From TrEMBL:
Belongs to the short-chain dehydrogenases/reductases (SDR) family. It comes from Lacicoccus alkaliphilus DSM 16010. PANTHER family: DEHYDROGENASES, SHORT CHAIN, ESTRADIOL 17-BETA-DEHYDROGENASE 8-RELATED. GO terms for molecular function: oxidoreductase activity. This is 3alpha(Or 20beta)-hydroxysteroid dehydrogenase. InterPro entries: NAD(P)-bd_dom_sf, Sc_DH/Rdtase_CS, SDR_fam.
Length: 247
């Protein structure tokens, strides 16, 4: 038996990077997975690769109508939603002085508003299922300050706060909400040219002297999505190789 047998999961940003690893692992553990992403080609390819247990639905996480449509399509295809992984996100690495208001608003719109909208519109579906687990992907930048990452840091602190508020509100409905706070992970985001040097410097500071592989974060997300974590809600789960312990 799989650890997610019979469950329906929605993973935002599921077409590539860490989200794709989540999707592959979830289907392997028995879940039916909706890959929600703006990248139509990658999303369709990933769904095809994973077979009948996966479905791609195009999603702009900042768009309310997109979220309503996603929930409707998911319920029609797989049934009520049991798991939501708010994984989609962007990073803009600039000093506060160089960060434009447009940069700031774009980052918070995706990283913060997207999480809020996901929880808002998936919640009624989880009530139908009479149980649920929401896993919000934050960052260690949602716990400690991050140099030259003001917009990202602000958005990830917000995810942490949203998680706690939702956990209290949703608990009477047997719906849990937790946040995952990775350190540096080997993904396309951390290999972007504008953050590559920062990642190299951070790697030197990590007590374990390496950055995480995506599956190491996925294993934590899987635990929180499964019934194994049935009494955990409103909590930060850190996976950073010990980095913030020395900050």
């Amino acid at each position: 038996m799989g650890r997610l047998d019979g469950k329906v999961a929605v993973i935002t940003g599921g077409a590539g990077g860490m989200g794709k690893v989540h999707a592959k692992t979830f289907t392997a553990e028995g879940a039916k997975v909706v890959i929600a992403d703006l990248s139509t080609s990658k999303g369709k390819d990933t769904a095809e690769e994973l077979g009948d247990q996966a479905k791609f639905i195009e999603l702009d996480v900042t768009d309310e109508e997109n979220w309503k449509k996603l929930v409707e399509e998911t319920e029609e295809h797989f049934g009520p939603i049991n798991i939501l992984v708010n994984n989609a996100g962007i990073v803009v690495s600039k000093s506060i002085e160089d960060t434009s208001l447009e940069d700031f608003r774009q980052t918070t719109s995706i990283n913060q508003d997207g999480v809020f909208l996901g929880m808002k519109y998936v919640f009624p579906s989880m009530k139908k299922a009479e149980s649920g687990s929401i896993v919000n992907i934050s960052s260690i930048a949602g716990i400690v300050g991050s140099n030259n990452n003001s917009a990202y840091t602000a958005s990830k602190f917000a995810v942490r706060g949203l998680t706690k508020a939702a956990a209290v509100e949703f608990a009477p409905h047997n719906i849990r909400v937790n946040s995952v706070h990775p350190g540096t992970i080997r993904t396309p985001m951390t290999e972007q040219e504008d953050v590559r040097e920062l990642v190299k410097e951070m790697e030197k500071m990590i007590p374990m002297k390496r950055i995480a592989e995506p599956i190491e974060i996925t294993n934590l997300v899987l635990y929180l999505a499964s019934d194994e974590s049935s009494y955990s809600t409103g909590t930060e789960f850190v996976a950073d190789g010990g980095l913030i312990q020395q900050m």
